[in-house]
Every structure is written in structure tokens, then in C-alpha cells.
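User: Good morning. I'm curious how adenosine-5'-diphosphate would be positioned relative to this chain. Could you predict the structure with it bound?
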Amino acid sequence: MAKETKTRTEISELGEFGLIDRLTSPFGKTQKSTMTAVGDDAAVIAQSVDKVTLVTTDLFLEGIDFDLVYFPLKHLGYKIVVAASSDILAMNALPEQLTVSIGVSAKLGVEQLEEFYEGVRTACDEYGVDLVGGDTTASITGFVVSATVIGSTTKDSITYRSGAKQNDLICITGDLGSAYMGLHLLEREKRAFEGHSNPQPKFEGYEYLLGRYLRPSLRKDIVDELEKAKLHPTSMIDISDGLASDLLQICKSSDHGARIYLDRLPIARETYAMAEELHADPVVAALNGGNDYQLLFTVPLEMREKIGMIGGIDIIGHITAKDTGTLLVTPDGAEIPITAPGFR
Ligand code: ADP
Ligand code: MG
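Assistant: Good morning! Here's the predicted structure, ligand included:
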């Protein structure tokens, strides 16, 4: 009998986006209403002549995306709504409905699941999102959560990753790297108290960083402000994987390059202090940390003043021609090509 040769490609060879592309590229579109399938923050489905529905889904696994040793279930419930809804905002639309599916491990009781749902409800109330369904099953590997969020908007106001044009300003909300520093602090305290029956970690003075990791806010305010200012971004993405990876997504989709300036990256005082304490690089945290859920978007150059008037938005660079590449410019003028870390 002839020996069968089977090839096995490691996922790390393709990376996360290569893997998604490999698995989904054989799919075509059969429905006229499917406007955008895979490839942006949310799928776009035509509803009527001028309206669209947006759909996005996110999966969270215990041990990969969260650690229940230090992640309070109530905060987790809140965070998954923020994380999933953030992809709708990134299309310049507002989240409206949510489904939450859970795989429940044996160590969780009813009261704990209620706590989780209390967090889901707090976020739903705060952001005006309705829980409309989900699914419940058992899990033997740990707590599993999947959240799907639906939103709608008009065809005219939708913002794709692909619309950035040369000379557009690159804008960012909030600060970067603080959530990542919060995570590192939690990991450090977890290691320090491993095996202790009554751990007493010290978190005073670190509230900002912990809050940014455990209870990030949804930047719905920004989408509202952009609308009020009649400011339509040319492209937008939410920062879930880190500025480097998400800026590269915009550049790739828009077929352009970018220059961002190191000294313009919004990094909080608390992030610098924590980086020093942990002997970590705050710039690496800002570029690759992820978990920020801030919005990264581009606007035409002449919108600079309007952006300034909104407040809380930093202009960190501009879009360039594709062949320039995507570069980080240091204060002494050196240009470092931006690369994204692989599948994590
Ligand atoms: P985000 O970080 O914005 O949540 P992802 O990087 O997870 O987005 O996904 C990028 C794109 O790939 C999205 O359009 C998403 O719907 C799609 N995608 C991701 N995983 C899968 C999958 N397993 N099957 C089909 N589409 C997927
Ligand atoms: Mg996204």
C-alpha cells in the first residue's frame, strides 16, 4: 500500500491573518445583500437602498484571553460587550443588539454566572445595547464566551479600513499601552502570590492601569462627536491587537504607507511609571500591547482644526504612498519599519 503523505503547516507560519485568509478565501458571495464579508471590523449587509446592517463576533477563552484568577467575572461581562461592540464603532456605526454564548466549566456556579451577566447588563445599559439571545453549553476546558454584536447605519456614513488616502492625518483616541501594563501588573502579582491561601496583592496607586485592562470604555462618545462635527473619517479600525498591527491593517487595506512619530504617541504617565518599574519598554507596550479598544482613524489634512476641537484625539502621523512603507519616525529622524507580532 502506498504510503500517504500528509503535509502539516504550522499556524505560526501563516500568522493569524494569513490563517483567516487561507480558510475564508475559498468562500464566494451568493447574496446580493452581502456587501462586505471577511476583512474589516464588521461584516456589512445591505438592509434597504440606503441602510446597512453590521455584524461582528468575538471569542474569549479562559487561559488565553482572560485569567479568572484575577479577572472579576463582572468586569469580564462588561469587557466582552465593549470588545465586541468596538468593532461596530470602528465602522462608524453604533451597536444595537448583542448575543452572548457561553461554554460553562464545572467550577462556575449560578451566582458567578449571574455576576458575569451583571457586567454584561451594566455595559448594555450604559451603551444602549439590547441582549437578544445566545447559546449555553458545557465546557471541559474552561470558561468560553462568544459575543456577536449587530449595528446599523447608512451606506454613506460607513467607514471601511480601506479608505485612507495620501496625506490623510492619522488620528488616535485616548492613550496606548496602559491596558497592557495593567495586565502585566496583574500577572506579576499572580506570580508573587502563587500558592498563597490568602493573597494580598498591592494595587493602590495602579487603579488607572488596572481599570484600562479590566474595564475598558467603549469609545461611543467619539463616534457621536465625529457625527456632530460632520467629520467623516476616510478609514477606521479599533485597536484590539495593538497600534502596529492595526495601522498595518489600514495601510494594507488602503494600499498606502504611513509615517507615525514616536514622540506623538499618546502614552499615559502611569504607563511610563509602570514600564520603569517592570523594566519594560513603554513604546513597545503602546505599539504591540493591544487591548486598548481605542479608535484609530484617518481624516483629510484640512480637517486638522476640526479634530483639535473635539479634544482627546492625537494626530500621530500621516498616510504616505505605498512604496514608502509603514514607518515609525524617532525624534532624531530615524525611520523604523513597523512590523506586527505574529499569532498570539
Ligand atoms: P477584529 O480584531 O477586528 O475582531 P479579526 O482580526 O478577529 O478582527 O478578524 C479579521 C476579519 O476576519 C474579520 O472580518 C472577521 O470576521 C474575519 N474572521 C476572523 N476569524 C474568522 C473565522 N474563523 N472564520 C471566518 N471569518 C473570520
Ligand atoms: Mg476590530
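The mean pLDDT is 94. Residues 20, 23-24, 38-41, 58, 87, 240-241 surround adenosine-5'-diphosphate (ligand 1) (CB under 6 Å).
Let me know if you'd like a different ligand tried.
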